[in-house]
Amino acid sequence: MEPLQTSDWSGFGLVFWLFLVLRALVALSFSGAIGLTFLMLGCALEDYGVYWPLFVLIFYVISPIPHFIAKRATDDSDAASSACRELAYFFTTGIVVSAFGLPIILARVAVIKWGACGLVLAGNAVIFLTILGFFLVFGRGDDFSWEQW
Amino acid sequence: MKIFLALEDTFQVKMAGFLDNFRWPECECIDWSERRNAVASVVAGILFFTGWWIMIDAAVVYPKPEQLNHAFHTCGVFSTLAFFMINAVSNAQVRGDSYESGCLGRTGARVWLFIGFMLMFGSLIASMWILFGAYVTQNTDVYPGLAVFFQNALIFFSTLIYKFGRTEELWT
Questions:
Q1: What is the per-residue pLDDT across A88-120, written as a single tens digit (0 to 9) for each?
Q2: What is the pLDDT of residue B8?
Q3: Which residues from B are below 8 Å from A87, CB to CB?
Q4: Is residue B44 less than 8 Å (CB to CB) from chain A?
Q5: pLDDT 10s digits, B53-91
Q6: Are B38 and A86 inside 8 Å of each other by CB?
Q7: Which spans in B19-104 are helix H?
Q8: Which residues does chain A have within 8 Å of residue B41's beta carbon, measured at their own beta carbons?
Q9: Which of A5, A121, B49, B71 stands 20 to 30 A from A97 (CA)?
Q10: Nearest to B53 among A80, A91, A98 (CB)
Q11: In what helix (H) or strand (E) does residue B114 lie, and over which residues does it extend?
């Protein structure tokens, strides 16, 4: 039997390279799915059955927006920070706090049960860590290397 | 061991403190000086919005006006207005160092900041008055009064951290 040629190894190498570069994307997608699963469990389990916690999806969607607005508004990337960027951090933090506050208030007035609240809070934590991961990995700007993809 | 040595020194030099040789463990991984503004912004955001959600919680749990008079929301609104007024002017504008003079110049910036701080302190004092005047001294459930007070106190500390916790040198 002939020894493996270089052309045979190249196919395997391509697959291995793809695995390495895609691992961040796959891992983040997985954690995002886990977070959404927690949220849906908090709504859809037999014990709970109330769908009010889905309103935190609004907070998930709007949480990256201040960052993008600040990035668009001030294009000077040589400064370490800027007033606009800090205001964006302020509002993003506010959106995250609100996503945690809403289920707690819903549970305090017994619109949802505390178990559902706990699941929604866990889902919140996972989703926001996922979004943060996306920004850390893919948000580096023009000089990021292709290995992140 | 270091604390023991320091204690030994104390017995010879009675004025030395026993933590004189104590040093925090060094963490060189993150440059905190560059991140100072971001950390201050995040902490201020957490405090500000926690204050608002405490008030929203009180308003939801105590919906009747006899329990939480709807006029008490005014304190939080004025605190928020004061937050944005105080943080709208940069320290450079107040000193007169800034190249762009804005609409009002240095004196205008100082007047704006003054009015902002007046509103902030006024709201804080009003919230304390509401807590003690309308809740503690009456024979009612005190939680809504505490909520008004904590909302304004948290917004006040958030303003201080956002205003004074950031350094403008990182903007250049």
A1: 999 999 999 999 999 999 999 999 999 999 999
A2: 65
A3: 41
A4: yes
A5: 999 999 999 999 999 999 999 999 999 999 999 999 988
A6: yes
A7: 32-61, 73-88, 91-95
A8: 86-87, 89-90, 93
A9: B71
A10: A98
A11: helix B105-130
Report the pLDDT value the prediction gives residue A147, as an integer from 0 to 100.
Answer: 47
Nearest to B38 among A81, A97, A109 (CB): A81
Q: What is the number of residues in chain B?
A: 172
Place of tokens 């951090």: A89
Distance, in Å, from the CA atom of A89 to the CA atom of A96, rounded to the nearest integer, reads 11
Residues 150-169, chain B, touching A (beta carbon < 8 A): 162, 166
Nearest CA in chain A to B31: A80
Burial per residue of B43-67, b for 16 or more beta-carbon CB atoms within 10 angstroms, e otherwise: bbbbbbbbbbbbbbbbbebbeeeee
d(CA B32, CA B43): 14
Which residues in chain B are closer than 8 Å to A135, comparing Cβ atoms?
Answer: none
Question: Counting Cβ atoms within 10 Å, is residue B147 exposed (0-12), middle (13-18) or buried (19+)?
Answer: buried
Residue closest to B143 by CA, chosen among B54, B24, B44: B54
CA angle B135, B138, B142 (to 5 degrees): 35
State the DSSP H helix or E strand holding residue B112, giving kind and residue range, or none if neither.
Answer: helix B105-130
Q: What is the mean pLDDT of each run of 10 residues along chain B (172 residues)?
A: 69 71 71 85 97 96 93 96 94 78 81 96 97 93 96 97 89 76
How far is the C-alpha of B62 from the C-alpha of B64, rounded, in Å?
6
Q: Give yes or no for A77 touching B (CB within 8 A).
A: no
Give the minimum alpha-carbon distance from A90 to chain B in angstroms, rounded to a whole number: 5
**Of B146, B149, B145, B97, which is closest to residue B123 (Cα–Cα)?**
B149
Residues of chain A with pLDDT under 50: 142-149
- Please give the DSSP secondary-structure letter assigned to residue A30: H
